[in-house]
Amino acid sequence: MPLFKDEMTPMERAIALSKGEDVDRIQCNPNLSNGIARVLGCKISEFNYSARTLADAVIATHRRFGGDSAKVFTDLFIIAEAMGAKMKYPEDETVDLLEPAIKDISEIYKLEPIDPYKDGRLPIHIEAMKYVQNEIGDEVPCTALVVGPFTSAFFLIGVETMTKMMIKDPESVHKLCEISLENCIRFADATIKQGIGISIADPMSSCTVVSPKHFRKFSKPYLKRFIDFIKSKGSGTSIHICGKTDNIWEDIVDIGVGALSIDNIASLKNCTETVGDRIKIMGNVDPSSIMYAGTKEDVRKATLKCVKDGYKSPKGYGIMSGCGLPVETPIENIDAMLDTAREIGWPITDEKLEELMSFSRYE
């Protein structure tokens, strides 16, 4: 169980920070992903057909840990699935792609606009959003994760085919991204109507996957239009891109997103120094070797280091894991991350962080 208690709700903290007022602690979002099933005590597969179960897991996770965001999310494929992609549905693991929606670009005519209220598992997510917002929306900022247009386009035709097309058939890549963008907007619009915010995941935009040149040619234009739409509806957004992203940090700033979550293989210090004056930074405690496989003290020390590297970022900083946590991440390690945020308190100084790093709380 937690060692420390919060003095503010996550919503109170978010509002105070937006006004430049003092808070009880720095924001912290462990990013449990499908680990929320372990908190509720259900199987991951139950999220695929029960909006109530998905919402209950999100709500239970918020009430158990008190993190600074409550996110409705199951997997990266719900938009592609609604457009015809086929999925693997393990009983107690995350849904994965079985077959893309089309096998060849000649079948692009098969890709039709989605109805978020009818197609695939999208209605389940929308219903879950309603429950979450109604029941805890006054306590914590609630969001839904929407996969970006570029990444969703990969799942429509397959990663290998899409990668080849970027070189051999760029015009068709743009066509796929255009169709993908339309459907991302449709789902985002339905999401915003539930009164919750949007966080974007765009793993295929990573410099680990595509070159910065291809990102700027094929991803950035559609991502910007997607973010422009979200902002036109009065909603803010954050983005997480896995892997290496340092060569596109300036591009992320250009597209107007409100916050950037970086992977643990990226340098948090460099990120805050490079773009922290223009965008809020979040990250980047290692989700595997630290959060999943480390001790509570490993988590504490890694969290303290991240805060030291990021807290002076002019546009703000929030503690976060470098990516979604493995499902079986120990509960006590998640507690340790949030307890470290509470232990640091407010205001934050280098001297306070050095003092906290000089001793071990759990060993």
UniProtKB/TrEMBL annotation:
SUPFAM superfamilies xref list: UROD/MetE-like
Source species, domain of life: Bacteria
Coiled coil: none
Domain Uroporphyrinogen decarboxylase (URO-D) span(s) in chain numbering: 9-343
GO molecular function list: uroporphyrinogen decarboxylase activity
Pfam hit, one: URO-D
GO biological process terms on file: porphyrin-containing compound biosynthetic process
InterPro entries for the chain: Methanogen_methyltrans (IPR052024), UROD/MetE-like_sf (IPR038071), Uroporphyrinogen_deCOase (IPR000257)
PANTHER family, per database record: METHYLCOBAMIDE:COM METHYLTRANSFERASE MTBA (PTHR47099:SF1)
Protein name according to UniProt: Uroporphyrinogen decarboxylase family protein
Native organism: Anaerosalibacter massiliensis
